[in-house]
Amino acid sequence: MKFAMMFAIALASTAALAGRYQVISQHPHDVQDLAKYVKTVSQNGRLWIVEGNNIPASVMKHLRPLTGKEKSFTHITHNKLGAHPLISATTQKLSESLIRDYVSKLAGYKTRLAGSEENRKATDDVEKNLNELGYATKQICYTTGVCSIIADKKGLVSPEKVLMVEAHIDSVGKDFAGADDNASGTAVLLDMARVLSSYQNKKSIRFFVTNGEEGGLLGAEHYAKSLRSSGAIKQLELVINMDMVGWNSNGIVELETNPEYESLAKWFAELATTYTTLKNKITLGAWGSDHVPFLKAGIPALLTIELWDTKTPCYHKACDKPEGLNYGYATEIGKLNVAAIMTKDLE
Same domain for 123 and 236? Predict the structure, then answer.
């Protein structure tokens, strides 16, 4: 192809993207603001594309210009991996009833809003739980009194290689709510920690209970920055984020990462077919949760989340209560993520 023709095609592609954006905040009040200035081009899973002109800066902060690499699709899997007996046996140890109990306890705090006394109590209780499971724990605070939890289980062969699972403990602050967002993710993290506490891991396993996610990924940004400063960010081989894993009626898990990690998302889809009953939706174009700071730092990171097309109708509302969740579905997501950690560990 001649250079002039290639240049013309590139210009045409750029022109097609001009004025089109990916929505990177879907908080209800942000969506209300967006509706005044943009129109929807397409909406598929968490990939929501809009177009508009003369958009004010206050609204533009919720948008990101398209690169042309964003997409959302179902990956056709063939169960090619072959189940590992130890991984299969370990995933079966996850407990739907314990996950339910963890969610009920976390939603039982009046509020888990970052900075509140109840948030601090919830953080202390979760750290105590992880410590009792045998993990080496500590709290790291991005501001006075608002802390995330690090819980480490040192690898027996390659302790310098770290596989990390994260979920945020804070809520938007509605009273006795935040069950799906994100008591569900924290609950599955705790049960994964229980199941993996007796596993003889070669690499180090880290559970990261983040805080301040609802305020702008504050705890995750703070921790990623500290790891970059120390150089320890290079130790992370994989980051798995769980945010809103409890509302579902169709058995589909959304696997979100950035386009450069498409193969990672497809690998997760294959793991889901191998070890769980889950179907998949892959979305490339990450936004809005605690995997994003690690992706920005060049770390393979992926969000497991309920299918966004059918997400909870109680998103960021007072009705986000424990009784509305599908705990069997949340357990299947836990199985997927245990399988991912163990597969990477056994490489």
Answer: yes
Under the banding of pLDDT at 50, 70 and 90, the label for residue 7 is very low
**Number of domains composing the chain:** 2
Weakest mean pLDDT among 2-6, 16-20, 241-245, 257-261: 2-6
Distance CA 137, CA 205 (A): 12
Q: What is the mean pLDDT of residues 41-68?
A: 96
The pairing of strands 301-306 and 252-257 is antiparallel
Count of H-run helices and E-run strands, the chain:
11, 13
Residue 184 is given by DSSP the state I
Cis amide leading into 248 (omega within 30): no
| Same domain as 128, residue 27 | no
This prediction's pTM:
0.94
- Amino acid present at 35: A
Q: Is residue 77 part of a domain?
A: no
Structure tokens at 241: 């984020």
Other Cβ atoms less than 10 A from the Cβ of 4: the count is 8
CATH number at residue 244: 3.40.630.10
Cα–chain-centroid distance for residue 103?
17
